[in-house]
What we know:
By secondary structure, the protein is mainly α. α3 packs antiparallel against α8. It is 82% helix and 0% strand.
Amino acid sequence: MNNVRPVLTVARWTLIEAIRRRMVFVAVLLSAAFVALFAAGFVLLYGMAEREMAGVSSGVGTGTGLLAIAVVLTVLGLYAVQFMAALLALFLGVGSLSSDVDSGTLHAVLARPLGRGQYLFGRFAAFAALLAAYCAVMVGALLLVARLVAGYQALSPVRAVALVVLEMLVLLAIGMLGSTRLPTLANGVLMFSLFGVAWLAGIVGFIGGLARNETMINLGIGVSLLFPSDAVWRGASFYVQPASFLAFTGNAGADASIPFAAATPMTGAMLGWAIAYPVACLAVALLAFGRRDL
Length: 294
C-alpha cells in the first residue's frame, strides 16, 4: 500500500496538470466536433444511398448494399478515431519523462520520498486512464450514431473498445520507453515513423492476403511483431462489424472487408504478444530510467 500511494499521487498530479494546461478541454472540444461531423456525414451519405437503392430495386441485394455502406462509413469513422487516439498516445508518451528531465522538474519531484519507478508508473497510469476514457467515449459515440441511423449492431463493442485501448497502451508504453533515453523531438520522430511503418505493413499484409503472396503476408506479420499497433487495431475492427457482414465477407472468400479492417479475429498468440508488449516496454523503461543520469 505504501508503494502504491505515491504512484496514485503522481497520477493525480499528472491529471491535474493535463486539466490545467487545457489538454482535456481541447480534446473534449475537438472530439465533440468530430462526432457531430461524423453524424452529419453518416446521415447524409446513408440517406442518399437509401433513396438511390429504393429507386432501383428492393430485397436482399438492397439490404446487403446498405449494410456494406454502413460498415464502410462506421469503420472509416472508427479508424479516424483510433488514429487521433494514437497521435494523442504518442504525444503523451514521447515527452512523458524527457520533457521533465530537460526542464529540471524531476530534480524537485524526486527530491521527495518518491522513487523513479513510482514516478514512471504514476505518469503511465494517468495517461492510460485519459486514453481509455477517450477511446471508450469516442467509439461508443460513433457506434451509437450508426445504430440510431442505420440500425447498426457491432459484433462486440466491449471487445472492440478493449482492443483499441490496448493499442493505445502499446503506443504509450513504447513512447515512454523511448522517453527514458531520447530527447523529446528525436523520440517523437522515431515513434511516429514506427507507427507509420506498422500501418504500411498492415496494408502490405492485406494486399498479400488478396494476392495469396506469402512473402507479403510474412512481412506484415514480422513488422506487427516488432510494433503491433496496426495488428491490434485490425483485431478491434473485427468486433465493430456486424455478424451478418462478417458472414457475407467470409462466404465471399474475402480476407478483409476494406483495407483498414479485418474479417477474422486476432489469433491468441498475437493477442498474448500485444498484451505482453507494453508490460515488457515498461519493464525496460524502468530499468533504463533508473540508470539515467538526471
